[in-house]
From TrEMBL:
Top-level taxon of origin: Bacteria
Name this protein carries in UniProt: 3',5'-cyclic-nucleotide phosphodiesterase
Annotated GO MF terms: 3',5'-cyclic-AMP phosphodiesterase activity; 3',5'-cyclic-GMP phosphodiesterase activity
Residues of the Metallo-beta-lactamase domain: 17-208
Any Pfam family: Lactamase_B_2
Gene Ontology biological-process entries: cAMP catabolic process; negative regulation of glucose mediated signaling pathway
Length: 254
């Protein structure tokens, strides 16, 4: 199985794209601006979208994806998320004011877009990949995801400052290969990071002390203004940690 990083920046501008990962051609994990770089044919292959939360940098391309591929697919696009996230999407995005309600057109019986509730702890198996929603701590209801190919697992924290429940799952995942974890801000934005419930290097490194299992750690969601500084702050004095910056267009095989 493969996970292609369509976007992993905490912002836009130039080559920066916000969070979206393409799993095995038909599954999106978040739908940030990276989705917009896919070809039309690649867009039509997307059948499932798993959202970590409703923040705009993670859903920005979902409305236009639905609009672009409607009529080119025989089956509906399915959006998986917690009830709280789906309620926010229905109320604030697919509400006819911002964008049409594709769950009602062409009709409610056979809509272009359907919703599937996936709460923390629940799993869904698609194309032999088990996708499990795992606990996250953010300013709005949020989850992370474990992607388990059977041979290997990727755990993605989503936007989160993590919790004991999160580390319990990480540390009991026997086939853990990769941990994708966010660090949005540099240490000079320590206060803002705490308020926004994002990591900065200080809080990331403190939480990583809970990791008791070897794996490749990938840092994602770096804000463009301080991305180099943030990685320097993470790596200085921590050369022994197996930690690298997640790169756009990178493919993780697992
Ligand atoms: Zn967020
Ligand atoms: Zn975000």
């Amino acid at each position: 199985m493969h996970l292609q990083i369509l976007g992993c920046s905490g912002g836009i501008g130039g080559a920066n794209r916000s969070t979206s990962f393409l799993l095995n051609d038909s599954i999106l994990i978040d739908a940030g601006t990276g989705v917009g770089d896919l070809s039309f044919t690649a867009l039509t292959r997307i059948e499932h979208v798993f959202l970590t939360h409703a923040h705009l940098d993670h859903i920005a391309c979902l409305p236009m994806l639905a609009d672009t591929i409607l009529g080119s697919r025989s089956a509906p696009l399915t959006v998986y998320a917690s009830k709280a996230t789906l309620d926010a999407l229905k109320k604030h995005i697919f509400n006819w004011a911002i964008w049409p309600d594709f769950n009602k057109i062409p009709n409610s019986e056979a809509p272009f877009l359907r919703y599937a509730t996936l709460e923390t702890g629940q799993s869904c198996c698609i194309e032999k990949c088990t996708i499990t929603a795992i606990p996250a701590v953010h300013t709005v209801p949020a989850v992370g995801y474990q992607l388990d190919s059977g041979q290997n697992s990727i755990i993605f924290s989503g936007d989160s400052v993590c919790s004991p429940a999160f580390w319990d799952i990480v540390n009991t995942t026997g086939n853990l290969g990769h941990l994708i974890i966010e660090t949005a801000f540099s240490n000079r934005e320590y206060q803002l990071a705490n308020t926004a419930k994002h990591f900065c290097p200080l809080t990331l490194l403190e939480q990583l002390k809970n990791l008791s299992r070897p794996c490749q750690i990938w840092v994602t969601h770096l804000k463009p203004a301080d991305s180099e500084l943030t990685m320097q702050e993470i790596l200085q004095d921590n050369k022994d940690l197996n930690i690298r910056r997640l790169e756009q267009n990178q493919v993780i095989n697992f």
